[in-house]
Design a protein that fits this description.
It is a single chain. The protein contains 10 helices and 8 strands. The chain is α/β, with parallel strands linked by helices. The protein has 2 domains: 63 residues; 200 residues, Rossmann fold (3-Layer(aba) Sandwich). An 8-stranded mixed beta sheet has the order 3-2-1-4-5-7-6-8, with helices on both faces. The longest helix is centred in the N-terminal third of the chain and has 34 residues. Bound molecules: S-adenosylmethionine. The site of S-adenosylmethionine has 20 residues, from strand 1, helix 6 and strand 2.
Length: 292
């Protein structure tokens, strides 16, 4: 249900965008055009609902299978490689944000929590040429991503909980000295590892940037964000402010209407030692409500 509500429905925003003529798909003043478009919209909606229901049934069945079998069946479906429309939810501005961060800060490596199908992990390696570490809690997705990424020795695919993974990484002195771009995307259900992930990172890495997917962009609700109930929404209220003194807080510089793909919101946090480097970032908008 979370996938349908938060990932698929936002992608259906094309039903609301304006026609190139400037006439909105739903408010044309020409009644016959309006009914044609409404019929087409209804058909698209019905087709999409059917696809969603089939996908849900597929997933429910796959969940009943041992992960060692489920991932193999997944792997036979090339359409699953793209996750939600491609790397970083198919969002072109978000991809540009990552490219710009990589230009502005000489990161030694990238760490992703929540591998899923390895779509973004592969992208991170392609755009950075730097080693990528990614961690996934679910065996089915871990096996899938391990197979998918087998030809990339530079991408380390780990199975486990993101919190334990980061805590362990934080004990490695060589890793601690590195400049790291963290992509936090291990939110999937009520067990939200986000606060603990941030606490470990902020108390360990001096030169790092944290990009959090599915985060609220205040004032722009075209960007969807995860909300798992009271106290479990990905908003600034959930941030451990005490751990983020001196950090910079950034959002996408473009409104959701100019973003592509699933249009998920995100927050970028930059550690005090690197934050000034992001002053010229065109893809980011610094927010005054600094979590400090
Ligand atoms: C939104 S998906 C990640 C998508 C992926 N980053 C991408 O861009 O294609 C979230 C993934 O996080 C995983 N996950 C959830 N909780 C986790 C945890 N505590 N540790 C590691 N992975 C977790 C889920 O199994 C799921 O595969």
């Amino acid at each position: 249900m979370e996938i349908i509500l938060h990932r698929i429905l936002p992608q259906m925003q094309f039903l609301r965008v304006s026609h190139p003529s400037g006439v909105s798909a739903f408010d044309s003043s020409m009644p016959c055009l309006r009914s044609q478009r409404a019929r087409r919209g209804a058909k698209l909606l019905a087709a999409s609902t059917l696809r969603n229901n089939i996908e849900r049934a597929y997933n429910k069945t796959a969940e009943l299978l041992p992960p060692t079998i489920a991932w193999r069946i997944d792997y036979l479906r090339p359409g699953l490689r793209g996750s939600w429309g491609g790397p970083l939810n198919g969002q072109r501005h978000r991809q540009a944000m990552v490219r710009e961060l990589l230009q502005l800060i000489p990161f030694d490596e990238i760490v992703e929590t929540g591998t899923y199908r390895g779509t973004s992990s592969e992208f991170f390696f392609h755009v950075s040429g730097r080693p990528v570490r990614t961690v996934e809690a679910h065996l089915r997705y871990h096996f899938y991503a391990s197979r998918r990424l087998i030809s990339y020795p530079e991408i380390e695919v780990t199975c486990g909980d993101s919190r334990s993974f980061l805590r362990k990484l934080a004990t490695e002195s060589a890793a601690r000295r590195k400049a790291i771009l963290f992509y936090l995307d291990a939110h999937w259900n009520e067990d939200l590892p986000l606060v603990e992930e941030i606490m470990v990172i902020a108390s360990t890495w001096e030169r790092c940037v944290i990009m959090i997917d599915d985060f609220e962009v205040p004032g722009d609700y075209g960007y969807a964000f995860d909300d798992y109930g009271p106290g479990k929404a990905l908003t600034t209220a959930a941030l451990p402010r005490e751990a983020l003194g001196g950090w910079g807080c950034f959002y996408p510089s473009v409104p959701a209407a100019q973003e592509t793909g699933a249009r998920r919101g995100c927050l970028v946090l930059a550690s005090p030692k690197v934050v000034t480097r992001l002053g010229s970032a065109a893809t980011l908008r610094r927010e005054d409500v600094n979590p400090s």
